[in-house]
Amino acid sequence: MKRNVVTFTYILRDPAGRVLDTSAGGPPVTYLEGAGQIIDGLDEQLRGVAAGTKLRVEVPAAKAYGDRDPGQVRRLKRAQIPVEGPLNAGDQFQTDTDRHAPVVTVVAVEGDEVTLDANHPLAGVDLTFEVEVVAVRAATEEELHHGHAHGADGTEHCH
Ligand code: ZN
């Protein structure tokens, strides 16, 4: 199957209409279709959309960041948590120094016990994207081989 590299801008809203994220103020997003570079539900619904198209894409939580898993909420002793300084409800930190490490959220601090939620902050949230497709082109052999896009024009070096 022929696969494309798609470049788009977006505004992401939750069901209450609050803006959760946007590409405005930064470069548009470029991805290789079907490569897991963007959430599945968005990838699927942008197939075959021509450059210049504006559309609204609704992605249920299950096809975005997944449903919330109550098993990901845990109580730990404060001393077990590798974070210095005060911890407060709402704080978020990464479980490792790797920049792709999961983010956990502090739900509550009670005495020396801390409740942490390792669900993705957008787990369980149905998402609405307002998308403008900026460009669509065929993926290069190299991009197909690597499994990701090499920038909007296909010449960007990858890490
Ligand atoms: Zn590459």
What's a quick, concise take on this entry?
Helix content is 8%, strand content 36%. The chain is mainly beta and 159 residues long.
Number of strands: 9
Overall pLDDT confidence: 93
The end-to-end span amounts to 26 Å
Multimerization status: single chain
Give the name of the CATH architecture of the largest domain.
Roll
Bound molecules: zinc ion
Radius of gyration: 19 Å
Domain count: the total is 2
Q: Any idea of the CATH class of the largest domain?
A: Alpha Beta
Percent range for helical residues?
A: under 10%
The helix/strand order is EEEHEEEEEEH
Q: Count of helices?
A: 2
Q: Which of globular, elongated, flat, extended, rod-shaped describes the shape?
A: elongated
Please state the structural category.
Answer: mainly beta
Keywords:
mainly beta; Chitinase A, domain 3; Thrombin, subunit H; 5-stranded antiparallel beta sheet; 4-stranded antiparallel beta sheet; elongated; binds zinc ion
